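Ticket #4471: structure output looks truncated?

Reporter: J.K.
Steps to reproduce: submitted the chain below (55 residues) through the standard prediction queue, then opened the result file.
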Amino acid sequence: MGLIKEPLNIDFVVENRPLTKEEEKQISEYIISQKKKRESKNNTNSRISKTKQKV
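Returned output as attached by the reporter:
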């Protein structure tokens, strides 16, 4: 990943600092939980409705 440059005429500051180990762990846990939620949602949506089974 590259550095984020500040756009011209914008009044905010981008803080470029490395993540701490605790922050990295929290982000990793969040990503894992979101993937599990997405997988479980996909599994429930993949069932065929009863009207489509009759065809």
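Triage note (M.O.): checked the attachment and the full token line is present. The CA atoms of residues 45 and 51 lie 15 Å apart.
Status: closed, working as intended.
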